[in-house]
Known about the structure:
six-stranded antiparallel sheet, globular, 3 domains, binds flavin-adenine dinucleotide, binds FE2/S2 (inorganic) cluster, alpha/beta, Elongation Factor Tu (Ef-tu), domain 3, Rossmann fold, Ubiquitin-like (UB roll)
Amino acid sequence: MTTHTITVEPVGREVECEEDQTILDACLRAGVWLPHSCTHGTCATCKVDKLDGEVDLGEASSFALMDFERDEGKLLTCCAKPRGDVTIEADLDVDEDMEVYPVDDYIGTVTLIEDIATETKRVVVELDREIGFNAGQYMKFVVPADDAGGEEVDRTWSIASPPGESTALEFHVRNVKGGRGTDGWVFSRLAEGDQVRMSGPYGRFVLKTGDDRHAIMVGGGTGVAPLKSMIKHALGDGEYEGEITLYAGGRGREWLYDVAEFRELEAEHDNFTFRPCLSEETAEQVSAAGEDAQGYGFGMVTDVIAADHERLSGCTGYLCGPPAMVDAALKTLMSLRLFPRDIYREDFFNEADKDGGGVKSPLIKR
Ligand SMILES: Cc1cc2nc3c(=O)[nH]c(=O)nc-3n(C[C@H](O)[C@H](O)[C@H](O)COP(=O)(O)OP(=O)(O)OC[C@H]3O[C@@H](n4cnc5c(N)ncnc54)[C@H](O)[C@@H]3O)c2cc1C
Ligand code: FES
């Protein structure tokens, strides 16, 4: 395979990149951090200036990389592959709270796959060796080819277990009808004992352990996954002293999961509050089912947050889940006086979002 040299300015680091490899992949594997979020050409976080050389721009969404930007020589490192030696210039600032762990390939064995909520599975994978990652990061799975002629693809799922558990990784996967990775694999073919291939860790949606301001965490559906990793990490080692409130949104109780585990953590830690929120179930229905309705917020998660707080200035926000929910939560936090610079988001984009749903305000960190 032909390789080319990628020079990353302003630091002048040189990385070898194969012709069928993306620039981001080569750099992350070499331990050279480049900004990125979705790694699927949707969010535009990895956009950089090309100073020299030729690239194949790959499957960059035309919304994430617009025509005029292509003309200006910009590229998305998660999609672009070199066609000769290339020089790029990127914003290489790494959060102080983040360790840079080089991306690598892993083989794992599925040790647990169970239903935990409606259309939601927990998958635990025992890796062939230890992995280092920051709480909140994700892995990229290789979804095998299928009998219907679908080729191998990769799909990203966030690590829900804390970094201290470095060989058994937990994932929460929500089914998407017609989706290659979920409907076509995790929910139909994947079984305990199966071997899976994955690479990682990726992403910069990580817990800022050095920042002890009140963290307002909002997870829609399986958006709880990276937040669970952050919370267990923060509460587990005892070094994080900030307050954390987790809002977990679901239509009804059967759409929420790990409620008992979060309640246990809440009982054990004064600095953790858990607010499960039900948008389509009422207090009366919960009581009629014999459960204490006081343990829940009722309405959209954003309405519950707004009812709980007059202002959120001085807090930080961590938002994760379907893009529409993340957008709505962002507006709510900003209306409660939380600055965009203090809000971090992870949008669970899928293939359908490549048609334009992916690019959000450049003010908000991913
Ligand atoms: C950083 C990150 C972390 C994530 N973490 C999690 C997680 O922890 N848990 C979780 O459940 N999800 C997570 N996701 C979402 C996950 O990566 C997948 O997108 C999701 O699981 C659906 O994958 P899929 O292969 O089943 O669906 P896809 O194959 O992506 O399809 C999704 C939908 O789009 C349709 N579609 C497919 N191709 C196209 C096309 N070309 N045009 C229009 N529509 C199309 C399909 O029919 C389907 O309805 C994360 C996403 C990101 C970016
Ligand atoms: S990381 Fe490249 S577009 Fe999202």
